[in-house]
């Protein structure tokens, strides 16, 4: 499927705001997940690196958000919850809570961190929970895209 939105940018704090504005019509969850993924690039890969943000409409009322950066080695890791005093460390946990599943696709010279979300039109009540994660509609993909009880 072709992306419905593609944004080419440099990973800077100002561009995080641009991503949120550009994705506004797609809903707050899409905005939040995309901006968190771009912020993770800034923090863990470096400010000013080229990034591509893509959003696709998937079957079944799903939206897939992908953020591609040029460092295939800097992989996201879901860590224990940040303490109340911590100034950062909640972004990936937030993405994990919002997304149906998420993961990483590695290629030569780049990686794409992605997540899938339900659109506002989808009724969550009709989708069964999974045994691995009560309240989760599907098993999440782990850091390398493998199904996992903890993403």
UniProtKB/TrEMBL annotation:
Species per Swiss-Prot/TrEMBL record: Streptomyces iakyrus
Molecular functions (GO terms): ATP binding
Signal sequence annotation: none
Keywords from the UniProt entry: ATP-binding, Kinase, Nucleotide-binding, Serine/threonine-protein kinase, Transferase
Bias-annotated ranges (Basic and acidic residues): 130-139
Domain Histidine kinase/HSP90-like ATPase, residue spans: 28-114
The protein, known as: ATP-binding protein
Superkingdom per UniProt: Bacteria
CDD domains per UniProt: HATPase_RsbW-like (cd16936)
Region Disordered: start-end pairs: 125-151
Classification via SUPFAM superfamilies: ATPase domain of HSP90 chaperone/DNA topoisomerase II/histidine kinase
